[in-house]
């Protein structure tokens, strides 16, 4: 049976099995905060991450091997998922190679009903431990506070309140996490390593991107070979899905992410952007 737990605020309650692993794995891969009292801890973390990225890339490690490494070596490890069009690929691999990993889902209050249904379907299908995290402000409270629909007037602030801040709070409970981002999705992701670091809430964490080098064709092939269920909106022309106010279907000659924030000059919501504005801190030379 899958476990679907719902946090009423942005704090993530890490499963007991994961919390108990804090002393396991590689101590050098524990997240490092600004006030850490262990001299050299950040240098050790960054060195270990570079070493791991170089080795995995040189070995031609597949996504499953990257997830197995992360699950074994990162003391408190989680994954994030938007339960979008291609999300089933990472979740399928996670269920095989790191099945005890909690999956963080940010319920912004503005998702399509179809996305929430898809989340529940994949959680059952892959027996996932999904932790649904919500913002501190309801959508109605946010509209009253700002006297406008921020998704239209200020999408950057809307994303910060409904995605960035809740994720940062949730990640305070872990030392590293995996996501399904890929180099070919946006220009800003082109140099994405398999294993890098990211700063969230003043802490430097391990950021794992098992699908970094995958292409649209490879994703489609994996979905086809493993008969993974499609997102219900895909058949209606939605190829990249976020919150409903900022998502539209795309034409065949458009890029998949052209339907995201179509009325604003954005291609990232911010959750994959480091606190210094970078997608991920360099771990090593990217090996494709």
What does this structure look like?
The structure is a single chain. The protein is α/β, with parallel strands linked by helices. The protein has a single domain (3-259), classed as Rossmann fold (3-Layer(aba) Sandwich), CATH 3.40.50.620. 34% of the residues lie in helices and 12% in strands. The chain contains nine helices and eight strands. Helix 3 crosses helix 4 (87-97). The N and C termini lie far apart (37 Å).
Draw up the topology in text.
Blueprint: E1 3-7, H1 16-19, E2 32-33, H2 41-58, H3 63-73, E3 77-80, H4 87-97, E4 102-106, H5 113-126, E5 129-133, H6 139-146, H7 150-153, H8 155-171, E6 176-178, E7 195-200, E8 203-208, H9 216-225
Parallel strand pairs: 1-5, 3-4, 3-6, 4-5, 6-8
Antiparallel strand pairs: 2-8, 7-8
Helix pairs in contact: 3-4
In short:
It is built from 9 helices and 8 strands. It has helices spanning 16-19, 41-58, 63-73, 87-97, 113-126, 139-146, 150-153, 155-171, 216-225; strands at residues 3-7, 32-33, 77-80, 102-106, 129-133, 176-178, 195-200, 203-208.
Relative helix content:
25-40%
CATH architecture: 3-Layer(aba) Sandwich
Secondary structure class reads alpha/beta
Q: List the secondary-structure elements in sequence, H or E.
A: EHEHHEHEHEHHHEEEH
Distance between the termini: 37 Å
CATH topology: Rossmann fold
Summarize the biggest pleated sheet.
8 strands, mixed
Count of distinct strands: 8
- Number of helical stretches of at least 4 residues: 9
What is the H level of CATH, i.e. the homologous superfamily?
HUPs
Uncertain runs: 6-12, 15-21, 275-288
How many domains? The number is 1
Shape: globular
The CATH class designation is: Alpha Beta
Rg is 18 Å
Q: Strand content of the residues, in percent?
A: 5-15%
Mean pLDDT: 82
């Amino acid at each position: 049976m899958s476990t679907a737990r719902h946090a009423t605020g942005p704090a993530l309650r890490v499963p007991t099995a994961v919390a108990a692993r804090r002393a396991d794995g590689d101590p050098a891969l524990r997240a490092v905060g600004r006030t850490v009292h262990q001299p050299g801890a950040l240098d050790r973390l960054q060195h270990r991450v570079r070493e791991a990225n170089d080795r995995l890339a040189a070995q031609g490690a597949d996504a499953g091997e990257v997830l197995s490494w992360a699950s074994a070596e990162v003391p408190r490890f989680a994954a994030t998922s938007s339960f979008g069009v291609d999300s089933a690929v990472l979740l399928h691999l996670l269920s095989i190679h790191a099945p005890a990993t909690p999956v963080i889902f940010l319920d912004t209050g503005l998702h399509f009903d179809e996305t929430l249904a898809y989340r529940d379907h994949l959680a059952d299908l892959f027996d996932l431990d999904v932790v649904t995290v919500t913002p501190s402000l309801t959508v109605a409270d946010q509209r009253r506070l700002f006297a406008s629909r921020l998704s239209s007037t200020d999408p950057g602030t809307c994303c910060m309140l409904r995605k960035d801040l809740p994720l940062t709070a949730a990640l305070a409970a872990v030392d590293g996490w995996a996501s399904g981002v890929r180099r070919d999705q946006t220009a800003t992701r082109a140099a994405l390593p398999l294993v890098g670091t990211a700063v969230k809430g003043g802490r430097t964490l391990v950021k794992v991107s098992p699908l970094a080098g995958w292409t649209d064709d490879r994703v489609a092939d994996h979905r086809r070979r493993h008969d993974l269920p499609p997102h219900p909106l895909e058949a209606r022309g939605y190829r990249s899905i976020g919150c409903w106010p900022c998502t539209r279907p795309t034409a065949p000659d458009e890029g998949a992410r052209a339907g995201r924030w179509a009325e604003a000059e954005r291609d990232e919501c911010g959750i994959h952007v480091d606190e210094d504005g970078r997608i991920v801190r360099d771990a090593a030379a990217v090996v494709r």
